[in-house]
C-alpha cells in the first residue's frame, strides 16, 4: 500500500507542477488554488508513504514521478519539444526509479 500511496503522491506532484505553470506566477486565482491544494495532497501522501518506506527511496521516487510526469504533460499538453536527448533523460530517470523500487526493502 505505501507504494500505491507514493504513486498517487507523485501524480499529484504532476498536477501541481502543471497548475503552477498555468497560474502564470500565481497571478491567476484558480490555477493558483489548484497548485496549493495539489501540493498539500502530494506532500501529505508522501509523508504517509514515508511511514514505511525509506526516506531516500520515497523522496527519489516521488520526485522522479513528478519529473517524468511533468515532462510528459509538457510534451503532450503544452507542446514542449520531444528531442532524443530529452527522451533519453526521461528514460534514465525511469530506470533509476525502477532500481530504487527493486532495491527497497519495503
From TrEMBL:
<dbReference type="InterPro" id="IPR037185">
    <property type="entry name" value="EmrE-like"/>
</dbReference>
<keyword id="KW-0472">Membrane</keyword>
<keyword id="KW-0813">Transport</keyword>
<feature type="transmembrane region" description="Helical">
    <location>
        <begin position="58"/>
        <end position="79"/>
    </location>
</feature>
<feature type="transmembrane region" description="Helical">
    <location>
        <begin position="85"/>
        <end position="102"/>
    </location>
</feature>
<dbReference type="InterPro" id="IPR000390">
    <property type="entry name" value="Small_drug/metabolite_transptr"/>
</dbReference>
<comment type="similarity">
    <text>Belongs to the drug/metabolite transporter (DMT) superfamily. Small multidrug resistance (SMR) (TC 2.A.7.1) family. Gdx/SugE subfamily.</text>
</comment>
<feature type="transmembrane region" description="Helical">
    <location>
        <begin position="27"/>
        <end position="46"/>
    </location>
</feature>
<dbReference type="Pfam" id="PF00893">
    <property type="entry name" value="Multi_Drug_Res"/>
</dbReference>
<protein>
    <recommendedName>
        <fullName>Guanidinium exporter</fullName>
    </recommendedName>
</protein>
<keyword id="KW-1003">Cell membrane</keyword>
<dbReference type="InterPro" id="IPR045324">
    <property type="entry name" value="Small_multidrug_res"/>
</dbReference>
<keyword id="KW-1133">Transmembrane helix</keyword>
<keyword id="KW-0812">Transmembrane</keyword>
